Amino acid sequence: MIDLPAYQRKGELMSLFTSEFTIMSRPSAFGFLASLSILMVAASDVLADSNTLSTQNSKPVISRTAYSSPFFDQVKLHFKKWDSDGNGELSVNEIELAVHNTKVKGKAAAAAASLRRGVRANRNFAPVTLQKLAVSLQTKSTTENPQPRFESMYEAGVKKLQEVNRQLFTADAPAVESISQGRLGDCFLLASLGTCAYRCPERLREFMKELPDGRVEVTYGDGRKVIMEGPSDGEIIIGATSRGTGTWTNMYEKAIGLRMLEESTSKRHVTPFSYIGGGGTPNVPVQVLTGHQLRRHGCELYRDKTDENGASLADLTPLRNDLKAAFQEGRLVVGGCGPKGKQTLVKGIYYNHSYGVLEYDEETDTVLFWNPFGHKYTPKGPDGLQNGYTTEHGKFRVPLKEAVMWFGSFSIETNEPSEKYGPKS
Cα–Cα distance between 167 and 391 in angstroms, integer? Predict the structure, then answer.
């Protein structure tokens, strides 16, 4: 049943007000008091329903008890379970826990993941109440008053679960071409995953092993072993995609995120995915995976002198030697570029973003980079600093003298043990 819109109730009140004063055409204390009583009751009804009105426009809004949609129905169905403190609101952490819970499956997981994406995009939307959610779902999103696209995010989540392969690894995995960053903002973590999948895929199979009962044994770089539940449906939805080759991308996110969460002193995050969703440096996941320290080689040292095309004229020998040795010895290399600033701005390059470094070709003096988005980009003109670089599945090759003009720094794995994540003597 649809509740009578409050604006219509107000119209009835005005009609009632007019009729009462018609009845009171002759002064009467009794009639005045009786009429006033009727008006006060009617007015209280209108005020009680006024919270069903959108504050953004004058259109009638159906109350939370009457509104229905596939997404909203799932939230209503599971709201009390997810509201762990029973205060009638879902906090950011309560939503994160619902996404993390392996017992929250299917459409319920898609609803929880949609809520997470919505509140992460608009922090002011949390805490979430059913009434606030119902009003948002019925309010047109505008530039001045943006509303989370909960319904479409829910549908995308349901679709992703229908398509996922529940094996940890299929026969073709792991492969860097299969990875595409999800909705977490964890490029810093995926840079190490993609680099390892390209350089030494067997290392990832040793890092994560599926057990007969479906759980996963994880062996960290310091030798510590942990048996974990596989990724939840909610984590699969918001995490990286493996293009049908298993859940290994999400399991890596969960395993690395768990270790980082354990080492954190902050109480802000409550799950591995909530932790890695806050971003970070690409150095740390490599340390967790390998147990080794990394060394930074900055590119800002090589930008003082450039040729007519904007490429560096500096002596790149120290960087060449660093990269050559790392790849010859099988060590991982990652890196990234900071926010747009003094570096060269190149079309197709994402700034404030982490990258995998897959190869250094000594003959051509080029570097093969990998963007965790796993996207395609075709320059409108020859490859270079002006037009960008041809990209397939996130991979693109760049002359080193051009790379140093836009790339921030290379982080190179060493043989030294990590102080925090390395073996304990």
Answer: 29
What is the predicted pLDDT for the residue at 183?
87
Give the residue from 320, 377, 367, 369 showing the smallest Cα distance to 347.
Answer: 377
Helices (H) and strands (E) in the chain, counts: 15, 9
**193/184 Cα distance (integer angstroms):** 15
Residue 44 token pair:
């209280």
Asked if residues 293 and 299 have their Cβ atoms less than 8 Å apart, the reply is no
Model pLDDT for residues 84-138, shown as the tens digit of each residue: 999 999 999 999 999 999 999 999 999 999 999 999 988 889 999 999 999 999 9
2: three-class secondary structure by DSSP: coil
One-character DSSP codes across 268-305: S--SHHHHHTT---THHHHHHHH-EEEEEEESGGG-S-
For residue 236, which of 73, 113, 387 has the smallest C-alpha distance? Answer: 113
Q: Dihedrals φ, ψ of 417, to 5°?
A: -70, 140
Question: Could you identify the residue written with the tokens 């994406």?
Answer: 117
**Residue for token digits 């997470």?**
116
> Longest C-alpha distance within the chain, in Å?
105
Describe the crossing of helices 70-82 and 92-100 by its angle, rounded to 10 degrees: 100
Measured CA to CA, the distance from residue 76 to residue 373 in angstroms comes to 34
DSSP conformation letters of 101-153: -TTS-HHHHHHHHHHHHHHHH-GGGPSB-HHHHHHHHTS---SSS----HHHH
> First and final CA of the chain: distance in angstroms?
68
Q: Using CA atoms, how far apart are residues 244 and 236, in angstroms rounded to an integer? A: 12
